Amino acid sequence: MSDPTITPNSLVIYRGRPARVVAVAGDKLSLELEGGEAAKVRPKDVSPLHPGPLHSLAELGARRLSPDVQTAWELLAGSPTSIAEIAELTYGDFAPATAWAAWQLVADGLYFRQTGNTLRASTAEEFAHMEAQRTAEAAERAAWEAFIGRAKAGNVTHEDRRYLREVEDLAYGRTERSRVLKALGREESPENAHAALLDWGAWHDSVNPHLLRAWVNLAAPTGPVSADLGALLADPARIDLTYLQAFAVDDEWTDTPDDAISWEDGPGLGRVWVHVADPAAFIFPGSALDLEARSRGVTLHLPEVVVPMLPADTTPLLGLGLNEFSPALSFSISVDAAGEITSVEIAPSIVRATRLTYEMASARLEEEPFAGLQRIALAFEARRRSAGAAAIDLPEVQVRVRDGRIEIKPVASLPGRMVVENCMILAGEAVARYGMEHGIPLPYATQDAPDSPSSAPAQTLSEMFSLRRTMKRSQYRSTPAAHSGLGLAAYAQATSPLRRYLDLVVHQQVRGHATDAPLLTPAEIVERIGEVEPSISAERQAEWQSEKHWTLAYLRRQPGWRGRGILVERRNASGIFIIPELALETQIHLNADLPLDAEVTLALRSVDLARLDARFRIEH
After folding, report:
1. pLDDT of residue 255
2. Which of 106-120, 451-465, 524-538 has the lowest mean pLDDT?
3. Global pTM?
4. Domains by residue range for the chain, with CATH
5. DSSP per residue over 27-52, as a string?
């Protein structure tokens, strides 16, 4: 049966809007809706509003707000009421049009409100609260619209900080949405947020958002380092190697000298000693410092800051050459004339190291012990090259930011650097062999061979660029495997335990073997590799993006920049150029048939810092 109050030509509410009942047929109502549409519904789907007669919804007219609504509310404040009473007090009669107007007052909720089936007038407190809230909302809408107007015109002010914070959150990767960018019709992406902030002058090029986007830990570790230098040096297990000349050779800006090299005459080409800082002497597997280092994976080297893997107190305690005597873990490696390792010994030691730069070491290669080290390095490198090691010498730079000033310095390919690098790689092969011979589980660094290896060594910059593209990503494994890029059958990084966690694990394992301490199992090695690899990947991404950011910020500050570019790859009508002084790659349209490795002068056209892109043109 239909509701007796619902008859043809009566006014009802259907889905929050007025409807006229055209016909009642059993348990169905035929309705006329706004816009001339029709619907058939059940009586329970509608709410009766006025019995009519209503011949057309057009009779309802536009909503009328009578000045008497204030009087009506004051008479009824806090009291139960009805649509009929509201209509009569506010509009003077109860008709379909006034009933609909009264219902809209109820729906508005300021003067009257409905809870379930109960209709009443708002109390004075409710009215005051709602009115204040609406006033505030209206003011906020006005402020928002004024801000959007300024943003479109590019004239944001300091007072707009509260709106800009959400754009900053998107630029930093803290959120995926921005009401501001959406209102401006811009795609909601970190890059667009960054670009908008630069356009408005809210950010300068000194803001590097890539660190927070990568979710890397920028807080320096603060755990206590309880080790004492005197106690470390007094360990009777240490052998005294202070008779050797040991040299910690690094770039001039390096402040973590964690390795040094020595040479002794002997059979073949003699013996290389690679002395490495010895944190495993007191950082044991599962200790607080071990867990801290494991959570970071590596030291984070950024142009603007270095975030160490271990607490700051570790470096002055263990850094080679920072004290007169240093505790070390020393790798003794004998090498024959063919660059092959003939014997390996590993022992905790005491060394006396002298710090040198690569330039200083390069100037002393004709004198011993540097001459002996160079002979071994050259033989070892030749052996690796014959085994397919990749020889890639692409431009490198050091990007540093100090007090807002950006410095970009090329990294020179010095012979002293070649000697030290080969000694470090030699130590990695030696410790890998040592681990295999003694059954010590280690994290091995491996690299599969390219799918299409080159038949000839790369000589030119373009050939090296092409070779780099073919190389596969290196990875860590708990079982030994070839490292194609280095031309070695097995390799384990062991020379930077202050800066790389898996190097520290190698030291812990080798030291544990020497002292008969329990060793990590292969499964535990795999677990540690799995824990640190995501951190290492994120940190490497942060480092690369940060260096690119500061390089482009450097160019942005020099709009008239010009420099040398070398063509290393052709792509249809475009070419990839390397800018050696910036170690920057750029793609440029080619108007001439330039050969690979051709040198041209490039002029800066534009810098899109937010998208890490710079455009250049060839000057003729």
Report:
1. 85
2. 451-465
3. 0.84
4. 1-44 (2.30.30), 61-122 (no CATH), 126-203 (1.10.10.10), 229-451+463-549 (no CATH), 558-619 (2.40.50.140)
5. TEEEEE-GGG-EEEE-GGGSEEEE--
